[in-house]
Here is the input.
Amino acid sequence: MIEFVLLDFWYPVSFSSGLGRRPRRVTALGRDLVVWRTRTGRVSVLSDLCVHRGGALSQGRVDGERIACPYHGWQYRTDGTCALIPAQPQRTVPPKARVDAYPVTERFGIVWAFLGDLPEQERPPLPEWPEHDEPGWRRIQGEFSWAAHVDRVVEGGLDFAHGPFVHRGTFGRFAPAEIPDFAVDAGPWSARAVDSGSGGLAWFLPSTTLTDLDLPGGRQLILQAHLPVDHGHTRTFWVALRNYATSRLADGVVGLMDRMVLWEDRRVVERLRPELLPFDLSDELHVRADALQVAYRRRRRELVAGGWPVVGDPAGVGPARVLPSPARRAVRGWVHRAGR
Ligand code: FES
Ligand SMILES: [Fe+2]
Here is the structure.
C-alpha cells in the first residue's frame, strides 16, 4: 500500500468552541470518526462506524454520557464499549460490541485525538506553544480546506523563500527575495529556524506549523494544525495571536488578512505535483533556503524507514477498516479490522 500519512500521532479534529452536543463527523486519515461532547462536557472521539450494521454514529444523538446509533439505537460509552442494545435489553451485551475510541485532549482551543494504538507513555508530544497561555495576546481562529496532500500543505508553511512570489497581494510585496543563511534547530518531534529578515518558522510532527511574523507594529504568531482528511484533502485549524491592535475591533481585518494569505498559498499548493511528497530527497532539488523543509522530510523518512506505522488510503470496497486504538493492545476480538 502506498504511504499516505503517519499513524500514532496527535491530530487536530475540531475546535473546542465549535463542538456542542451535536455529534460531528470528521474524516481523518481516510477514516470517519465521530467527535462529540457528553452532557458533562467530556469530549470523545470514536470510530464513526457502528459494529452492528455500519450506522454512522455521527447521525445519532447524545444521551447523557453515551451516544446512540441512529439505526437501531445501540448506545456507546466514551470508551467505545456498548452499554445497551435496545432490541434485547435483558441480555448481556456481547464483548465484541465496541468501537475504537481514541485518546483525546484539548489544547490551544483545539481538540486533538491520538490516532493510533501506542500506550500513553510512548506517545509523541503535542506541539509546544507557551505564548498561547500568556497574557497580552489577542487571539482569533479559523478553519480552512485544501485539495492537497497534507505534506505539501505543511511544507508551504515552512517555506522562507515563497513570500515575494506567492504573497504579492499581502505581506509579500515588502518581503526580500534573498534569504540569508539560517540555522535549523531540530529535535526528534519538531524543528525551528529563525531568519533574520522576517521572523521564525517551526514544524511539529506530524503536521503542525508555527509562524512567527515580525511586523512593523508587533508580532503575530500563527499556529496551523493540519488534519489529513484523505490523501488529496487537508483541513486546517489555525489560531493567530497578535500583540498589536489587540482590540476586538481589529479582529475582522486581521482575520481577513490571514485568510487572504491562505488563499494565496492554496492557489499554488493545490497544483504541486506529484501530490504526495517524493520519498527520496533526490527527487526534487533543494537549496539552502529549503533547509527547514529538508529537516521535515528527513525526519519523516527516518521514521518510516525505521518502521513507524503509516496508513494508506482505504479502498472504497471490501470490509471496513478503522484506525487502531490503544484498547486493541489489551482487548481481543474486534468486529472491524484495523487497517494500516
Ligand atoms: S447499525 Fe448501529 S445500531 Fe444497528
Ligand atoms: Fe505562504
Remarks:
- The CA atoms of residues 52 and 323 lie 18 Å apart.
- The mean pLDDT is 93.
